[in-house]
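Please, structure for the following, as tokens.
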Amino acid sequence: MLPAQAKHDVRTSWYYLAPQQKDGPAKSFQIAATLSLLRFHSFSHPSVVQLLRLPGLPMPLPVPTVSRKIVHIRRVEIECWHRDDGMLDIEARMTDLKDKDYPLPPSLGVRAKGEPLHDMRVRVTVDLDMTIQDAVASSDAVPYPGGCDTIAPVYQQLIGLSLLKGFRRAVTERFGGVRGCSHITELLGALPTAAFQTLASLQRDNGVRDWDDRVAKQPVQLDKCHALEVSSETVRQFYPRWYVRKMVGS
């Protein structure tokens, strides 16, 4: 169990425990927003439960009340790059990991614990209108070599699509079901919002704030989610120019 005198360093998100005796070694625990620490302790170790309840540690989900163990970990990571030619590269990666050795069909052996069952990547190059100019995909770890890893070239059909207009529907039409890899196709669904975040960063780098009076068009994020419905309090407070009072009974 962790002692009550655990100290939180807000600069590093480390929790420091005072030495148990004079000049004794201090212990420290880094709490990261990953599953690794929690997987090791299976959420049931009392030290982890106490760590999760320490004041100052963000905990968006309630601490589980039933002991459990991790079975599967999926990680998705997206990076957005601004190229020297003015275009953007958006790179996405999905990995699937098992918490124990995972048997495959007999001729394929066993995927060892910690080795990815799936490791899929995709990169799209887009112009500043968010139209895809180039696309590549790769399957670096798959359960069925010689099958899963042959589909990547079809994703060149992404070229010409807009990330901001009907992208997910177009992806389903082209790559849904047996026409594509379910994991790569699923990964593509996260690209539009990542692209938007990239555009927002570039606009701010150029001194443009989407709440400024000089912005002539309604910011694209408005009316795209419940918080930014144009009749919401959020829009009234932060984007008053675009606020629309909701009619009673509508």
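Confidence is low (pLDDT under 50) at residues 1-53. Strands lie at 7-9, 14-17, 27-30, 72-82, 88-98, 102-103, 110-111, 118-126, 132-141.
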